Oligosaccharide repeat unit polymerase
Amino acid sequence: MLFFIIWLLVLGASVYLFKRSAGSLSLLKPNMNSIIFYYSFFISSYIGSLFIATDTDGYYMLNKLTHEEYRMIGFVAVSFVMVVFPLVMFIVSKFVGFNAKKELDSYLRKEIVVPFGKRSEFFWIFAGLSFISLAAIAYTMLKTSHIPILELVLRTTDMSPGELRIEAQRNFGGNVLIRNIFAIALTPLMSLIAYVYMVKTGEAKWILLFLALFGGTILITTYDLAKSPIFFYIIMFLLLRMYVGKIKFTWAKLLSWGSIGLILLIGMYVVIQGVTDVNSYLSINSGPIGRLIFAQIAPTFLHLNMFGEAIPFLDGRGMPSIILGIFDIEQVKSARLVMSIAFPEKVEAGTAGVLNTLFIAEAFANFGYIGIIAGTVYVAFLVQILYIVFLRLPKNPIFLSLFVYFSINIPRTLVGGFSDFLFNPIWFLVTGLFTGILLVIRLKIDLSSFWLRRKSRTEL
């Protein structure tokens, strides 16, 4: 009962602070901060933490705990994040004079402006990038010895879906950067940008480009049988349509979309993982429900249990490889290390890779409890600054699509690790690439105008 009372008090404080920092926690007006609250913290982390703390979870992963006191310690750590994270965001908002509700409502009403009007420079640059991305998808397919979704449909192998997925990820025969950057990272974002241009211009060239990129995105997000990428892309697309003004979220629509999503998810569990027992879908510790409330948070408790006890702290060796490379230090990912210790048989069988979890786990694995405190403050500060910047940037197809992209990918990364918030090459690339294109075209236009004005003055 004590844990439940604490849980309710912490949840109440978190809801209040998140609402003040986000502007709205209404499911009918989703935004980056509200998605963080609902997905990263409440559903993926805090519900499961209560069951784990009271030892009523029955989740297989928690059987690997060697010290039961870490059930309580983990609950306290997650409760700390639930309150301090939005508190830091609230303080940042106050410091920069950010009225979250007012500015979010203003952004939703704001008209989308297409930069450079009818000029075609951006389209041709974008079309070139689209060709590269689509070619990268074809390259990925050609260099993947076993395409999981194709193998599953044609049943041409004896490997399980899990083995096929690991095979596709680990034994990719091509350049990983081409696959990860141009195929997996760029294509979904470019499809969003193309969609906004299509809606705002109605031009056939943008319609064709969007359809090609949309089809490529569906392929690259489903080919390896991963369940979450396609769902997150659909959520991104729906969120973009809301910001564009093409749809308005209602409770009836949310219910229908949720029902369709649930049916698709169950279908994927049946087809991909062979789960046919009805009880598995109704149980809180297995199937989709267990995946939602335990799978992302249970490894946090394992991290707290193992590091400093069975495993020495990493002392920074889990930080981004680009930083460690300067000091000639090899990167050690805590999520992979915990998986190899907790489930060595799965790693050896090739059916498991890493145990991604709430970002504080990786921060703890590297720097102990000070990592949890400093990491929470740092990430919350960074997230709120990004939220404020995007709401204050011009609402054009590029910035709007980047806003939607980060509105989904930041919540996903919060339950994936800490090091990506120190340096994420994909985030830097996509942001720098498209803002760079805008700046270059703007500079070209300004220089052309300057030379025309100079020429006119000379002729006079």
Summary: Residues 285 and 336 are 23 Å apart (CA to CA). Residues 425-459 form the longest helix (35 residues). The chain has three domains: 2-109+296-420, 121-248, 424-460. Residues 2-109+296-420 form one domain.
